[in-house]
Amino acid sequence: ENEVKLKPTDKTRVAHLYHNSRENAAKIARQLHISREQVAYRIKKFESQNIIKGYIPLVNYSRLGYHIISLILFKFNKQSYVKEFKEKIKESKNRITTVESLAKCDLGALFIFKNEKERNNYISEILSSHSSEISDYWIIEPYFSEFYPLKFLGIKKLQPHIFHEYATKEYKLDEKEKKILSILNKKANSRIVDIAKETNISPELIVYKIKKLKEENVLITTRAYFNMEKIGYFYSVILINLHNLSKQNQEKLRLFAREMEYVDSFMLMTGRPNCYIQIFHKDISDVHKVLKDLKKIFSDESITVEILPLKNEGEDVNSLPFL
């Protein structure tokens, strides 16, 4: 695919859309010192160039009663099994997204579960029904995770979005909220007037409900979902195992993730590895910089690092599979 060269203002626009895609075009225009029409035109262009693949909601699953997030990495006996397996799990009520890996494992899938029993039953069923295809698997379960703005595109001041905190109090969705979230799940940038037509709910009530879901920390934000390779960036996951995961070292890791320009998400886990960082990078020198800085910060600690290059950020995203 031919790389699309972005102008500096385009990079900032992409970063805004990644952090909050429903942000008012006039507000983005003011921040970028350009007209509202220019903002709208460039967004349409990103969509036609397939730089923007869609818009997805980011929700706090723990608030909806799903307290376990599992990233399961699968290794298959044959590459031909990967496509078949992806299709099989696509309609799962627990699967958020699927991503192909270019090393160690073949496929990673992100799942959510209400509790350990639901998770254990699901994994047991998958492993038994695909026992002849799956040669190995690894389970990564965060108890804390947060997302950052795309700092490498020039926006560093925006606050991170806390994506998962273990066992927060459950919020019960009413039928109208379920309908609104279902529409946002298909197209998170749907206009209020279009949501009203489709749900038969008044525009005023929709605005109120979306505001309430944000205040209740159920709907964290909505974001554009990009084909980053189109603009020359690639994804890798860095799996870190820090022998001493003290509170002080957890804070050091979090600060590192927040400040390092290539890092876009950060997770802490109870097992091994105990930290997960996703990075966007132009080339291998960007990856080396992240690793060198990490080793420097923890020069007095025992630390193991493993890199998983990913084919993309994820595909067939379904943020709310249970709705």
What would you note in describing this structure?
There is one protein chain. It is built from ten helices and twelve strands. The chain is α+β, with helices and mostly antiparallel strands and 323 residues long. The strands form three sheets. The protein has a six-stranded antiparallel beta sheet with strand order 7-6-10-11-9-12, covered by helices on one side. Strands 3-4-2-5 form a four-stranded antiparallel beta sheet. Helix 2 crosses helix 3 (36-48). The mean pLDDT is 91.
Please give a handful of descriptors for the protein shown:
about 325 residues, alpha+beta, six-stranded antiparallel sheet, four-stranded antiparallel sheet, 12 strands, about 25% strand
| Low-confidence parts | none
Largest sheet: 6 strands, antiparallel
Structural class: alpha+beta
Q: What fraction of residues sit in β-strands?
A: 25-35%
**Spatial gap, N to C terminus:** 35 Å
The rough form would be described as globular
Whole-number mean pLDDT: 91
State the oligomer: single chain
Q: What is the ordering of alpha helices and beta strands? A: HHHEEHEEHEEEHHHEEHEEHE
Could you estimate the helical fraction of the residues in percent? 25-40%
| Helical stretch tally | 10
Query: What does the radius of gyration come to?
Result: 20 Å
Order of strands across the biggest sheet?
7-6-10-11-9-12
> Care to count the β-strands?
12
